[in-house]
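Field log, afternoon session.

UNIT: design team B
ACTIVITY: writing a sequence onto a fixed backbone
BACKBONE:
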């Protein structure tokens, strides 16, 4: 059907009617007043001022004036007053004083609203105009509200924030609905406790953050967590999405922010949830055309509001983003979103728990093992897993089955993987194995080298561009680094590559970042810190910064080709020395390397304590 075209046409109808009436009204006006201008308006007023008028009648709606002059009582003159209000102002003062002074011969002032026909006719254009304008605005508001409220249709009105209470709609979300995210939940319990009893915190003078930023990839349950905080504390949940603001007209975004905060304060304790805050909170002054005025206004209003409310007032702003790097630094200043909670991809245990949550209302065939599904879905988010089970259920229905079997699960997994463009491929068992040994290599090198920061966590869950990561926890802040420390660091950086080489006798591109960092470090050791015995304590190259970033262009070269060759040789020597030290460590402790890698394949993640236990265990 041509539905869309028809709708487009009907949008123009009000505008057409409007134009018709404006033109018609103008014609009517000029035609009406055309033949009555016998006298200038000023002459008329002068007549009144000169006490010549004994009686007059004014039609307040169309300005028709009939008057009688003193001494000529039988004759009625008429005049069309261009503007009734002006005329009234011009003459009423005079009439009042005259009448006070001549109670016997007062000017008789009659006014009439006009005959119903002419009154209605003359008002018709105005009335219709107002009606049409009203209709126009109504339609616009409806459309705006529709675009604003995607998940909740109970929007209040234009310029107003949506409010949704945590205990609303019968089913409230609690921490039980958020599976696997134990660390995240733990970090948020303090907020829940505060919202339950803000006074307790205020009395003790404890400072609670005004804003919490949930950072993580889409689908990891940020919105769910925010709702669960509201549900746990049983407080209202006021939500808006940053992208909503972008569709708004100038000034509306800022006024919505104002409204959002004032509603929250009224309903305190309460949670304000700003989804996709990066849409408004982007670094100011960036973007095409030097920035988005509306967005900036909205952001400024947000900052003003956050500074405006006092701590412990009972309002907490939770915002979610997957791009914390592009946020305006002003947002991250103390007293704003100074608390960050990272919501990561779930590990194998987390995935199994999420699957359990979403399998609650589905019938699974006896052969289906959620643990197996969890094992084969590295890198899946909570949303992906929910989607997977749903797709499997749909397939089962289509096939007329009574329960979901492993076959549907497998097909659904494939569909989810293909469907989400973010993941280019499903992680195969082989890749998982490679990553496990790679990360185990880094961790082992760290463990067996003295003076390196202890391992805090090893994970083979993909994060950003990296397949896995080994996290170190610095025990102390280091102002200066020793030569030995840097040499050891090189060994750690090469640990991934060396492990791959030893175990598989093959190497992958997964270590490219490690190699790059190792090369930069080794080069700095030679050219910047003067750590090379052969070249001595001399700094080579111009700007340190540029050398450090590995950028060759624009660098002032203050050394000869001969020295350049020597530098390259030294860098090479330092790297190869580290490489061989690493091979020695990993081959000596090959048993531990295997144990750790196998643990990682099973659990995907190991924390510092378990790591140390595993390392110290007798073989
Ligand atoms: P985000 O806001 O991070 O993009 P959402 O909170 O919107 O993610 O999550 C989308 C859906 O994925 C949720 O409605 C929920 O069904 C599911 N989901 C995500 N994480 C979890 C989790 N930890 N436990 C249970 N379900 C989850
Ligand atoms: Mg969300
Ligand atoms: Zn690595």
């Amino acid at each position: 059907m041509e539905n869309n075209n028809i709708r487009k046409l009907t949008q123009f109808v009000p505008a057409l009617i409007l134009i018709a009436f404006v033109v018609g009204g103008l014609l009517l006006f000029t035609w009406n007043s055309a033949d009555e201008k016998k006298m200038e308006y000023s002459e008329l007023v002068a007549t009144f001022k000169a006490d010549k008028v004994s009686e007059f009648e004014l039609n307040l709606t169309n300005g028709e004036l009939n008057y009688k002059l003193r001494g000529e009582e039988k004759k009625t003159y008429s005049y069309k007053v261009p503007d009734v209000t002006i005329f009234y102002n011009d003459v009423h003062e005079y009439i009042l004083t005259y009448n006070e002074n001549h109670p016997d011969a007062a000017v008789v002032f009659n006014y009439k609203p006009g005959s119903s026909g002419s009154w209605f006719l003359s008002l018709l254009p105005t009335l219709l105009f107002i009606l049409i304008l009203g209709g126009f605005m109504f339609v616009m508001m409806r459309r705006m509200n529709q675009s604003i409220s995607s998940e909740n249709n109970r929007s209040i009105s234009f310029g107003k924030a949506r409010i949704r209470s945590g205990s609303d709609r019968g089913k409230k979300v609690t921490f039980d609905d958020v599976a696997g995210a134990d660390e995240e939940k733990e970090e948020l319990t303090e907020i829940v406790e505060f919202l339950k009893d803000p006074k307790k915190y205020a009395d003790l003078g404890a400072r609670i953050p005004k804003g919490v930023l949930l950072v993580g990839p889409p689908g990891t349950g940020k919105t769910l967590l925010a709702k669960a905080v509201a549900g746990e504390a049983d407080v209202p949940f006021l939500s808006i999405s940053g992208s909503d603001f972008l569709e708004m007209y100038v000034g509306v975004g800022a006024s919505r922010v104002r409204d959002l905060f004032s509603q929250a304060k009224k309903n305190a304790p309460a949670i304000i949830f700003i989804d996709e805050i990066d849409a408004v909170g982007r670094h100011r002054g960036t973007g095409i055309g030097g920035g988005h005025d509306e967005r900036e206004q909205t952001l400024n209003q947000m900052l003003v509001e956050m500074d405006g409310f006092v701590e412990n007032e009972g309002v907490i702003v939770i915002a979610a983003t997957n791009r914390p790097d592009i946020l305006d630094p002003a947002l991250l200043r103390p007293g704003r979103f100074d608390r960050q909670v990272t919501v990561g991809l779930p590990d194998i245990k987390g995935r199994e728990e999420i699957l359990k949550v979403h399998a609650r209302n589905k019938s699974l065939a006896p052969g289906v093992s959620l643990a197996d599904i969890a094992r084969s879905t590295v890198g899946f988010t909570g949303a992906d897993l929910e989607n997977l089970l749903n797709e499997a259920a749909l397939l089962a229905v289509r096939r007329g089955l009574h329960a979901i079997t492993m076959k549907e699960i497998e097909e659904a997994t494939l569909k989810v993987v293909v469907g989400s463009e973010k993941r280019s491929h499903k992680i195969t068992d082989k890749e998982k194995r490679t990553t496990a040994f790679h990360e185990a290599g880094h961790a082992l090198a760290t463990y067996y080298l003295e003076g390196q920061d202890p391992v805090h966590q090893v994970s083979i869950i993909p994060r950003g561009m990296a397949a896995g990561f080994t996290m170190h926890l610095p025990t102390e802040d280091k102002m200066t680094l020793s030569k030995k420390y840097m040499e050891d660091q090189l060994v750690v950086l090469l640990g991934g590559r060396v492990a791959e080489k030893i175990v598989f006798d093959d190497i992958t591109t997964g270590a490219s970042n490690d190699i790059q960092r190792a090369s930069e470090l080794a080069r700095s050791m030679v050219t910047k810190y003067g750590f090379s015995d052969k070249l001595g304590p001399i700094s080579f190259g111009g700007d340190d910064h540029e050398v450090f970033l590995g950028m060759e262009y624009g660098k002032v070269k203050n050394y000869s080709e001969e020295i350049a060759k020597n530098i390259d040789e030294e860098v090479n020597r330092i790297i190869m020395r580290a490489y061989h030290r690493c091979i020695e460590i990993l081959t000596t402790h090959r048993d531990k390397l295997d144990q750790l890698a196998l643990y990682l394949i099973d659990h995907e993640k190991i924390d510092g304590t378990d790591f140390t236990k595993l390392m110290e265990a007798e073989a």
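LOG NOTE: The chain has 22 helices and 13 strands.
NEXT ACTIVITY: expression trials, pending approval
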